[in-house]
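Hey, I was hoping to borrow your eyes for a little while. I'm sending you its amino acid sequence along with the backbone structure tokens. Take your time with it, there's no hurry, and the full record follows here.
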Amino acid sequence: MRDAAPDLTLVIACYNEAEHLEASVARLLGVCDLLRLDYEVIFVDDASRDETQRL
């Protein structure tokens, strides 16, 4: 468990984003890694009807 809060918290709302979510998140996390940020990601899925929840 971490002692300190992350530098950045990303809250990503998703609805039927299975086609785009993986690539978008990969790009976003790549930027966070380049900036050497300590981050956390929270995904909120509002009952998607596609495979978003499984990702």
Q: What stands out?
A: Helices lie at 18-34. The beta strands are 8-14, 39-45. The two ends are 24 Å apart (CA to CA). The chain has one domain: 8-54.
